[in-house]
Amino acid sequence: MAARAVPASLQQLPNALTIARLALIPVFVVLMATADGGHSWPAGSVFAVAGVTDQIDGFLARRWRVESDFGRIFDPLADRLMIDAAVIMLFIQDHMPWEGLVVILGRDLLLLAGYKTIAPDGYEINVNFLGKAATWLLYTGIGCLIVTHRSTDWPYWIFTTGLVLAVVAAVAYGVGAWKESRR
């Protein structure tokens, strides 16, 4: 498939957004560490920017047909690291139940470690709608937890829904890799 006519100056924009998202992680951590009472609009704003750029960089890379190996590796890594940082900081601020922390970090460690173990050589995880929906709900739920007081219950429902979808998506990816390895 031929690449779209995109000026060379814009072809690296998706990767630049991914790098910017990685650079936002320490900014987010500092804002959360200095948050009063476990909630912070500045940290929530940084987290929201990360979530929006996650959607934009992938959309642009696919639309402009400028997908790269860098993007395939670092885009999901940036998402995992930002979400992991948020969950850890919310846990430290007593605004995240330990079960959420364990499931998110455990899932991400299994995806990172298990991918190379069970996936056959050359197998690539293609993100499906379930995985995208889980990420959207996790970003939304975690973002709402960041900006609301601990006693606000509704963000936990969004987070929990995203968490369940994320686990189901991880199982689906694992089953797909396992089936591929059996061929």
Annotation field: number of helices: 7
Count of distinct strands: 0
In CATH, the architecture is Up-down Bundle
Helix content: over 70%
Specify Rg, calculated over alpha carbons.
Answer: 17 Å
Mean pLDDT rating: 86
Description of the structure:
This protein is mostly helical. The chain has one domain (11-181): Four Helix Bundle (Hemerythrin (Met), subunit A). It has helices spanning 8-11, 13-33, 41-64, 69-92, 98-118, 129-147, 154-181.
What are its keywords?
183 residues; mainly alpha; Four Helix Bundle (Hemerythrin (Met), subunit A); globular
Secondary structure blueprint with pairings:
Elements: H1 8-11, H2 13-33, H3 41-64, H4 69-92, H5 98-118, H6 129-147, H7 154-181
Summarize the structure.
The chain has 183 residues and is mainly alpha-helical. Helices cover 77% and strands 0% of the residues.
